[in-house]
Structure formats: structure tokens, C-alpha cells
Amino acid sequence: MPTYNFSAGPAVMPKPVIDQIQAELPSFQDSGMSIMEISHRSQLFEQVINDAEQDLRDLMQIPNNYRVLFFQGGGTLQFTAAPLNLATAHHHIGLLDSGHWASRAADEARRVATQVDILATGTDNHFTALPQLQGPVDQNLDYVHLTTNNTIEGTMYTKLPDTGHVPLVADMSSNFLGQPYNVTDFGMIFAGAQKNLGPAGLTIVIVRDDLIGHAKNLPSMLDYQLFAEKQSMFNTPPVFAIYAAGLVLKWLKAQGGLAAMAQRNQEKAARLYDFLDQSQLFNNPVIPSDRSTMNVPFMTGDPALDAQFIAGATDQGLLNLKGHRLVGGMRASLYNAMPLAGVDALVDYLATFEATHAK
Ligand code: PLP
């Protein structure tokens, strides 16, 4: 029986990438050492990290005036690093409160003495719709923080807010590389790897040149300028995670790049939403225009029935469908590496369950 992993992260990886890692694990490029054992200062690894950066630049069409940095510490560390590096003029940012991860970012920015203005919030509708700007943004803000995809709530910005000259800083952790965005619409993009890119332990930062180098006396491990100067090798980088991410980037190119991924992701998501919208038993609470193609929460409204559904799904090889504890119910994450067949298997099981458990 095939298994499909619907986890929100760490999440499904492309099968050919897992196979390649397995095949070359004992001896990377005939070196007699595994990728986990080679020096990060070796030519072998230099090639790996340079290829990864170039492939990412190709896929996202990242212009030359943007730095690509490889960090550790997850998306969460960037909630601290972004204000420390970029909120240097006024120590004052704006934020669109689109859910849990946006409010975590606000909390962490405040911890490093940054004033955070909530420009709009989804609290009134329990985050079932995206908060939108109601008017022009104060042009003295250092930047506006936006969570492009809300992993827990299942919402996603496809149209970006107009912030005038104020740079947008995007937490793209859960829809990184799932569709094209125009990099020049952002001052900075960051994403933890473990959803759409590779293993946990790697975080990508893409930042415009002119925004960095203004902060004084930052801790070295948080300093974008220093990481840019040292080509992300200020200390030992997460060698294995960068290698695996590099293989995923090559896989993405072979799939036809981000436009092709967007098309596939839309098709997968549409199959699931179409089922949920006609269902008498299951419900997705998000307004259709704001729905995520990556994370789809749904529920019956009866926690006991939800638990029964999840147990039955697990028996069918449909794994990790339990919803986030803040929302309850179920959540299916449909990242790039989830095949259409996985979504079809889920929809089949939903239909079977509904037929036998109609309200
Ligand atoms: N931002 C978003 C949108 C997320 O979904 C997550 C984790 O799920 C994070 C940030 C935190 O990421 P990390 O665990 O890599 O720190």
C-alpha cells in the first residue's frame, strides 16, 4: 500500500531525491566519505552550496542586488534577525496579523525593542480571511512583515499589499517555491527549509543589498552583512541540509520550475477544496479567495468523529492528517512533493468516510 505524508512540516520530500541521497550516502562523489563527513571548506562542498544558490536564483529569478544567505535557527530565528538587521532607522515596523506565525513574529520583534504596529488583523473572523491594509502605510516604518502562507489557518496571499516605499519582509516558510512571486516586490524573503525545500536545520534568507549593513554590533550569528561577506560560511553550515535542499532545487528545475509547480499545486488543492465544498460532513472555513494551495484545514465539527477519521486515514496510509492544536480537526498539507495521486487517495477516503458516517 502506498503511503502519503500530509504533514505540515517536516514534510514530504520528492521520492527521487530520497533515492539519490540513499544511493550516494556511503561515498559522496567517490570521495570515500559521506556528505555528512566532508569538510565544509572542501571544494566538494563549495560546489554543492554554489550550485544550490545558483539553482535557487534561477528558479526564483533573484536579481544580482539580492543576497542569498544560508542560516540555521529556523524561521523563528528570523523573527529576531529581521528586526535587528532591518529595523535600524526607526525601530518601528508594521505587521499584518494573519494568524499564529505572524503574531509570533510580532512577539519576537518586540523582544528586541522594535515597536510593532498591527496594520490589520484577522482576529474578528478567526483568521478565515486574510487581513488587508485599509489605507496607506506610514512611510516611516522600517518594513512591513507579511506571512505569505499561514500554515495553521490555511490562508495564502497571492496579491501583495501595497506598502509604498516601505519594504515588505515575507515569512515564506510554508509556500516557498510553491509558486512564483516577484522577488523585487520584497525587501526580504525568508523560509525554513523543512516544508517545501528540504530537511530542518536550514533557513534561506533572500535580502536586498541596500537594506543590510546598517546595524551595529549584532551578534555574529544574526548578522546578515557578515553572512553575506562570508558566503554563509562564518561557521560550520548545515552541510547535509544544504546538500539535500540542493537536490530538491535540481528536482524542481527538472519539473519545469515554479510556474509548473504552481499549476500542479492549484490542481491538487482544487481537487480537495471541490470535494470539501460539496461535502455535507466536512467543512473548510476559509473564504475561497484567500485559500492556501499548501495547507488545507478541514473538520466535521465533532472532535470524536475527526479522531475516527484520522485513525481510519492512518490505516489507509494517509499519514499526519491531524490538525494543528489551535484549529483542531484535520489538515492536509499539499507541498510540492505531494503527488496528485496522494490527493486523489485522500479524496476517495473522505468520500468513503462520508458515505458511512453521514450526519
Ligand atoms: N513561519 C511559518 C509560516 C511557519 O509555518 C513556521 C513553522 O511551522 C515557522 C515560521 C517557524 O518555523 P521554524 O520551526 O523553522 O522556526
Automatic annotation (TrEMBL):
The modification N6-(pyridoxal phosphate)lysine is found at residue 195. Coiled coil: none annotated. GO terms for molecular function: O-phospho-L-serine:2-oxoglutarate aminotransferase activity; pyridoxal phosphate binding. Its cofactor is pyridoxal 5'-phosphate. GO terms for biological process: L-serine biosynthetic process. Its EC number is 2.6.1.52. Pathway: Amino-acid biosynthesis; L-serine biosynthesis; L-serine from 3-phospho-D-glycerate: step 2/3. It catalyses: O-phospho-L-serine + 2-oxoglutarate = 3-phosphooxypyruvate + L-glutamate; 4-(phosphooxy)-L-threonine + 2-oxoglutarate = (R)-3-hydroxy-2-oxo-4-phosphooxybutanoate + L-glutamate. Pyridoxal 5'-phosphate binds at residues 75-76, 101, 151, 171, 194, 235-236. Residues 3-346 form the Aminotransferase class V domain. L-glutamate binds at residue 41. Binds 1 pyridoxal phosphate per subunit. Pfam families: Aminotran_5. One of its GO terms (cellular component) is cytoplasm. The keyword Transferase applies. Keywords: Amino-acid biosynthesis, Aminotransferase, Cytoplasm, Pyridoxal phosphate, Serine biosynthesis, Transferase. It is found in: Cytoplasm. HAMAP family: SerC_aminotrans_5. Homodimer. Catalyzes the reversible conversion of 3-phosphohydroxypyruvate to phosphoserine and of 3-hydroxy-2-oxo-4-phosphonooxybutanoate to phosphohydroxythreonine. Belongs to the class-V pyridoxal-phosphate-dependent aminotransferase family. SerC subfamily. This is Phosphoserine aminotransferase. It comes from Lactiplantibacillus xiangfangensis.
